[in-house]
Specification:
By secondary structure, the chain is of the alpha/beta class. It folds into two domains: 2-137, 3-Layer(aba) Sandwich (Rossmann fold), CATH 3.40.50.2300; 145-205, Arc Repressor Mutant, subunit A (Orthogonal Bundle), CATH 1.10.10. Helix content is 52%, strand content 13%. The chain has a five-stranded parallel β-sheet, sandwiched between helices. The longest helix has 15 residues, at 177-191.
C-alpha cells in the first residue's frame, strides 16, 4: 500500500484527491496538510510514502517547504501539483529535488500513474515537462532566465519579487543579511536586471507571483 499525504490549502481540492484515490486498491490517503508547516510535520514524522505538495501554501510556500523537506528527508518522494503552467516552475522545482510536476487539471489516471512511479524512487515526467527539460538541455534554445538560478537563488528571487526586504528574507530563511545580499547580487547578474522593481516586473510578466 502506498501511503499518500495531500498538502494543499484548499479543503475542496484535498477532498477531490481523496476521492480519486478512494477507488484505487494500492493507494491510501493517510495524512492531509493545509499549510507548509503541517506538511513539514508530516515529513518529519515519516507518516507517508509519497507527498503531494501544492506550490501556493500559507505561512510557508510549497517551494520553501520542498527545499526544507529535501534537506532533512531527501528520500521522501514529493510530487508537485500546481495550477501554474509547467514552464513557469517545473524546471526549477525538479532541480530542487521534486520527483515530479503535474498540473491540477491532469487526468486522474495520470495522477495515479505519477504516484506509483515516484513511490518507487523514480521521477515522473509528463509530456509537457519532458519538453521543457529537453529545451533546458538545448543550448540553442532560449530558456527563461529564472531557470538558470540555483534553488536558493530562486527562493530569494521570488521573495524579493514579492517586495520582501533583505533582512526579512534572512530571518525567514535563517541566513545572514550578507548572505542574502550575495544571493541578490547573483540573481541580478544571472537575470541581467538592475533593481527589485525589475525582479517584480519579470515575475509578474512570467506569472510567478501568487
Amino acid at each position: 500500500m502506498i501511503r499518500v499525504a495531500v498538502c494543499d490549502d484548499h479543503q475542496i481540492i484535498r477532498a477531490g484527491f481523496k476521492q480519486i484515490f478512494a477507488g484505487v486498491s494500492d493507494i491510501e490517503v493517510v495524512a492531509e496538510a493545509g499549510t507548509g508547516r503541517e506538511a513539514l510535520d508530516i515529513a518529519r514524522k515519516k507518516a507517508c510514502d509519497v507527498m503531494l505538495l501544492d506550490i501556493s501554501m500559507p505561512d510557508q510556500s510549497g517551494i520553501d517547504t520542498l527545499r526544507t523537506i529535501k534537506q532533512g528527508q531527501p528520500e521522501l518522494p514529493i510530487l508537485i501539483l500546481s495550477s501554474y503552467p509547467a514552464q513557469q516552475y517545473a524546471f526549477n522545482l525538479l532541480k530542487m529535488g521534486a520527483n515530479g510536476y503535474l498540473n491540477k487539471d491532469c487526468d486522474p489516471e495520470e495522477l495515479i500513474k505519477a504516484v506509483r512511479t515516484v513511490s518507487t524512487g523514480r521521477r515522473y515526467v509528463s509530456a509537457d515537462v519532458g519538453e521543457i527539460l529537453a529545451q533546458g538541455f538545448d543550448h540553442n534554445a532560449e530558456a527563461a532566465l529564472h531557470t538558470e538560478l540555483s534553488d536558493r537563488e530562486f527562493q530569494v528571487f521570488l521573495r524579493l519579487a514579492k517586495g520582501e526586504s533583505v533582512s526579512d528574507i534572512g530571518v525567514t530563511l535563517s541566513l545572514s543579511v550578507k548572505t542574502i545580499s550575495t544571493y541578490r547580487t547573483r540573481v541580478m547578474e544571472k537575470m541581467k536586471l538592475q533593481s527589485n522593481s525589475d525582479l517584480t516586473y519579470y515575475a509578474m510578466k512570467n506569472n510567478l507571483l501568487d
